[in-house]
User: What shape does this take?
Amino acid sequence: MDDKMYTATMEFVTERVNYHGENEPKGLWDDYEAFKLAVERLKETLTKEQLELFLDCETFYSAVDGGQMRFYFEAGFGDAVQFIMGWREGWQGH
Assistant: This one.
């Protein structure tokens, strides 16, 4: 994939991720709210040292989860674009 196509693909992926992030299913939002409440309740039970470790874990988990989601989404989308572009090029050659 050339640089222009890659840039266009990444811009499109970012746009789609943002769109879906703004339009999540209600069930997913409900699960997130339940998780957030459970986290807050857990934080109230931790010692100061445990809370510091928990906050570190929470921060790093968010980074890993977000990065992993974006990596797999971009990889899958990139594969789909390459497949379509390859198919199109093969079809035009006949």
About this structure: The mean pLDDT is 82. Residues 46 and 52 are 9 Å apart (CA to CA).
